[in-house]
Design goal:
The chain is an alpha+beta fold. Helix content is 43%, strand content 28%. It contains nine helices and 13 strands.
C-alpha cells in the first residue's frame, strides 16, 4: 500500500511520465524503481514524503475489487507497462488518491502504515531511478539509529546534538584557517631554502644545475619553487623530486635564456624518469614525470649532470 502511495506522490511531484520499473516489498521496507530522467532534489524528496505521510494520517480505508480489465481501464486504474494481464484484474483503490492493478497484499486502512521515510534515492539505469524507504516500526528504528549517530558525533566534537551544525561549521572555519597558516609556513620555509639551493648549484657547461629531493611536496609546490628561482636567476636548470610515500614525482625546469641553446625540459625528464622506473614529458621550459623507485634518485641526478654536460 505504501508503494502505491509513493508512486502516486512521485507522479504528483515529478509528472505523469513516472512509471513503475520494478519493486520489492519486505518486512523491513520497500524498494521502488521508476522512470525519471534525473536525480531527485532534497526538496522533491521532502515533498514526496510529505504527500505520503499526509495521506497516511487520513486513515482512509483501502478498497480492492476484481473486475473485467476493460472496466478497470475505463476507471483509469494504473497498470504496469509491458505486464500481461488476464481478462479479470484486481483493482486496489485508496479513495481520492490512487487506483492500481495489483494482486499483492495490502493493509485495510492506510493509517496502519504508521509512517513513511525515504532513506535513499539513486540511479540504477539510464532513465531509471530507485527509492528505498521504510514504514511503521522501520521508521522508528531508523530514527533511533540516526539519533545514536548524532549523539556519538556530538560527543566527538564535544558539544550536544542540538549544537552539532554550529560546532561543525566553527571547526570547518578553524580548519580552513589552520590550513592557510600551514601553507604560509610551508611557503616561507621553502623560500628560506631557495638561497641555499641556488648556492648548491653545480656549474656545468655554462649552466647552473640544481638537483633536490623533497618529502611530501606536491607538483604545484615544486613548480612554485622553480618559478621563484627563475625569477631571480638566469642560466639555471632544476631537477626536483617529490617523494610522497610510494609515489615519486619528478620535475625539470629550464630558465628561458637556456632554451635558445637547445636545453629541453621535456626531453630531459623522459630520460631521468626512466632511471627511476617512470616516464613523462612536457614543454621545453618545464616538464614532469611520475616514477616508482626513489632509491634510484642519486643515479637520476647523476644522469641530469651528464645530459647538461652533453648539450
Amino acid at each position: 500500500t505504501a508503494t502505491h502511495l509513493l508512486q502516486k506522490a512521485l507522479q504528483i511531484v515529478l509528472g505523469d511520465h513516472v512509471e513503475q520499473a520494478g519493486s520489492l516489498v519486505s518486512k523491513d521496507g520497500l524498494r521502488f524503481d521508476f522512470t525519471h530522467f534525473e536525480a531527485l532534489s532534497d526538496d522533491e524528496i521532502a515533498r514526496v514524503e510529505k504527500i505520503v505521510n499526509d495521506n497516511i494520517i487520513l486513515f482512509t480505508d483501502v478498497n480492492w475489487k476484481v473486475m473485467p480489465i476493460e472496466e478497470a481501464k475505463k476507471l483509469g486504474a494504473m497498470m504496469l507497462f509491458g505486464e500481461k494481464y488476464g481478462n479479470e484484474v484486481r483493482v486496489v483503490t485508496v479513495p481520492g488518491f490512487s487506483m492500481e492493478f495489483c494482486g499483492g497484499t495490502h493493509v485495510a486502512n492506510i493509517g496502519q502504515i504508521g509512517s513513511f521515510k525515504i532513506i535513499s534515492e539513486s540511479g540504477v539505469a539510464a532513465g531509471v531511478r530507485r527509492i528505498e524507504a521504510v514504514t511503521g516500526q522501520g521508521v522508528a528504528s531508523r530514527l533511533s539509529d540516526e539519533e545514536e549517530t548524532l549523539k556519538k558525533a556530538a560527543a566527538v566534537l564535544k558539544t550536544n546534538p542540538r549544537n552539532l551544525v554550529q560546532r561543525s561549521e566553527a571547526l570547518s572555519e578553524e580548519l580552513k584557517e589552520l590550513r592557510k597558516e600551514l601553507e604560509e609556513l610551508k611557503a616561507a620555509s621553502r623560500n628560506s631554502g631557495l638561497a641555499d639551493m641556488i648556492k648548491s648549484a653545480k656549474e656545468i657547461n655554462g649552466a647552473r644545475l640544481i638537483t633536490a629531493r623533497f618529502e611530501g611536496l606536491s607538483i604545484e609546490e615544486l613548480r612554485a619553487m622553480s618559478d621563484e628561482i627563475k625569477k631571480a636567476e638566469k642560466s639555471v636548470i632544476m631537477i626536483f623530486a617529490a617523494v610522497n610515500g610510494p609515489k615519486l614525482t619528478l620535475m625539470a625546469s629550464v630558465s628561458d635564456d637556456l632554451l635558445a641553446r637547445g636545453f629541453h625540459a621535456g626531453n630531459m625528464i623522459k630520460k631521468i624518469a626512466a632511471v627511476c622506473g617512470g616516464g613523462g614529458g612536457g614543454k621545453a621550459d618545464m616538464a614532469q614525470a611520475g616514477a616508482k623507485d626513489a632509491s634510484k634518485l642519486p643515479e637520476a641526478f647523476a644522469l641530469a649532470e651528464e645530459l647538461v654536460m652533453a648539450q
